[in-house]
Specification:
The chain has 510 residues and is α/β, with parallel strands linked by helices. The chain has 13 helices and 15 strands. It starts with 8 loop residues before the first strand and ends in a 6-residue tail after the last strand.
Length: 510
Amino acid sequence: MLESFAHANVLVIDDNDASVRLLQALLTRSGLRSVQAVTDPREVLGRLESLDPDLILLDLHMPGLDGYTVLAQLRERASAADLPVLVLTADTSREATRRALSMGANDFLTKPLDTAEVLLRVRNLLETRALHHSLQQRQRWLEASGRITRELLAGENNEPLRLIADLSRELADADIVVTTTVPSASGEGRSLLVAADDVDGGNLAALAESLCANLAGRVIQTGRPLLLDDAGSAEVSGAPPTLVADVGPVMVLPLIGTNSVRGALSLCRARGRPRFTDVELETATSFANQAAMALELADARADQERVLVLEDRHRIARDLHDHVIQRLFATGLRLETLASSLEPGELAERITERVQDLDNTISEIRTRIFQLRTQDTDERRTMRWELLQVVDELTPVLGFEPRLHFAGAVDTAVPDGVAEDVVAAAREALTNIARHARASGAQMSLILDGMQLSLDIADDGIGMRSANRRSGLTNLAERAKEHGGTFAVLRAPLGGTQVIWTIPLPSAAH
């Protein structure tokens, strides 16, 4: 009669050992696994949290503390819906019945007990509590769905998978949650594992992740949820026994988007814990659907923001090219004209130097324009883009951003095989600066002049003061030699070290 509530915790509070043993035998034979007892009513409050009962069977007349007082204390802790109490007593007076019910007892039976009636009353109270609990669960799942939608649409959360995993693990009382998304056209699939604080992270978490990866693929393919009472069941017989040794109930939910299944949400409990119910499956499935919709809306909002950013970048790039560069170029021409009209001397030389500074500034602006126009687009993998990526990668290590200068058709005239070595040489040189130079600045130039390609990198560091520094430049020299080129290490104009890596290009490149 009580097998459907096998995992319910029932607590008997009675000072009579014979009555306690009778009730324990009756309830366990009917399907309950956990029927505990407290024979001293004064211990009830102190042990209530650890016992965590779903139902209490309470005697009224006990020494030290009567059942009415215990009932009053219980109701201060939990309502009749959260913790039902069935009073079992030999007191047949109407006053006892009215007083117990008025103080919050859910039901009342007098001794001697009819065993069938006891079982029916216990089942009814457990069913009522389960219904109340399921309504609360539905409400919490709905609130969680609303929270996900609000946070993702408002841009308040940058880790949607973690938010979904954390909320679902708490609401489903799971030990392990694994979220898996399928690869999209714009990126790779993602996976995230969240475990309860008391879970053995090295064992159960690893097993559950492997298990859920297997089950998640099935759910993503079919689009239907999967509910297993035991991970070691025949439905996953293809998995090694050691894989599922510590995993019990499993619930895997599809994250269904508008046009396809976006991924899966896998919830696992440790072996021996209660199975996931049909009600939990229903509410969790609704949550997963809402979460998938929120993910899609958040992705759409992110795509829209990305388009706006790209449009803004292109506008800035266009304005830099059409206005700033043209003005700098015109200013440089006027200064050159002015210098040519002057007699040779210090003033003319200073003007010529400022013209060169303007040319370098124009080159840097053109590099930035290229960055703006190629970020988040498919216009990638050119020589210029590769070197910009190297600079972005090593800037945190260097502590500063090197200045870049490009001259010539470096994006179109350099063969792929040569380009790979140029990028490797640039990375090697900048890495050496980060390790040894103690520099605060550096500049890198890539110049294609006719059939000669030169990579020039200079820093303002401490210079070549250690023989160990030379060993870090061996690769640069070898790469230049392989292409029939040269490699030189000089004292930089900035006071540090300058490396010049020069190679001839194959005639086929022209």
